[in-house]
Amino acid sequence: MSEAIEVDRLSRRYAGGFEAVREISFSVRRGELFALLGTNGAGKTSTMEVIEGLAGPSDGQVRVLGHDPYRERDVVRPRMGIMLQEGGFPGDLTVRETARMWAGTLTSARPVDEALTMVDLERRADVAVKQLSGGERRRLDLALAVLSRPDVLFLDEPTTGLDPESRHNTWQMVRGLLDSGTTVLLTTHYLDEAEELADRLAIMHEGRIARTGTVAEVVAAQPATISFDLVGDLRRDQLPELPGSMLIESGERITLHTDTLQLTLTRLLSWAEEAGVELSGLSARPASLEQVFMTIAGASGAGASVGSGVGVLQEASTRTGAGV
Ligand SMILES: Nc1ncnc2c1ncn2[C@@H]1O[C@H](COP(=O)(O)OP(=O)(O)OP(=O)(O)O)[C@@H](O)[C@H]1O
């Protein structure tokens, strides 16, 4: 069996009938890091809780390592490591005492000092938890999550509050765990973190999965951007027809969104060469994960459907060759 986590048409409704998760499906292969991204309130935590076996699904099915994580929690829980957003441990215990206490609940924990070293907390082992900084607490939460040598590790916003060096150290540690075969399900608000770590990802919005795939696949579905300035004698109505691209004029700046970056750029540059025009401030770049995210987040605000890709932009623009 190569799938560590299988989510099949999962829905979760809260008391009162609000549907926080709406028929989502995805799977996570063994040894893979899958990132769950989304706007605030998109349903990431509601989804994670069901996969972790903390709540049952309202509809649909979840399997973790081939088992139902809610009904067969006794079987699945020992093989999971869960890093919660708030660890909630007593502040008067030291870091080492806290880790020892947690290790005492596990059947085959790794040595406490090894776990503290993994998260760079060994020098803080004798400090009371209440004296730790926010970032150090986060790292303690992570140490506790890996104490059981889990097959499946759940990381809920693991680097929130960490300084850049600690973030990079955490990423290194997660890569090490992946190399040793651990499967990781990550939620994060940092898109660079997903770009760094995720083999595949899903972007959730309003309870549904709006996009899923590798970072490259998700980004490829989003139009690329070409921009330049209208300066000197150059006017918008002189520009050539560029089929399949969408033009936005903002002051002197012209921005083109296109699904065919190479073709559109070639046509634009050929025209500029023939016409003897210098395209001042020219830049051409593929879409970023951030643009995909913003399109999804903005789509609902503009009344466009998620998945239409450029719904928001279309309202404020025209297509080249049709009215320019
Ligand atoms: N116990 C609950 N009862 C009712 N509604 C809830 C409950 N918990 C969460 N919700 C609602 O479900 C929706 C999804 O919340 P959830 O916490 O899963 O989102 P999220 O993607 O994790 O958000 P964030 O990024 O802000 O943590 C939100 O509208 C939230 O208000």
Automatic annotation (TrEMBL):
Residues 5-231 form the ABC transporter domain. Keywords: Antibiotic resistance, ATP-binding, Nucleotide-binding, Transport. The keyword Nucleotide-binding applies. Its main location: membrane. The keyword Cell inner membrane does not apply. GO terms for biological process: response to antibiotic. GO terms for molecular function: ATP binding; ATP hydrolysis activity. SUPFAM superfamilies: P-loop containing nucleoside triphosphate hydrolases (SSF52540). One of its GO terms (cellular component) is plasma membrane. It is found in: Cell membrane. It is a peripheral membrane protein. It holds the Pfam family ABC_tran. It comes from the Bacteria. SMART domains: AAA (SM00382). This is ATP-binding cassette domain-containing protein. It comes from Phytoactinopolyspora mesophila.
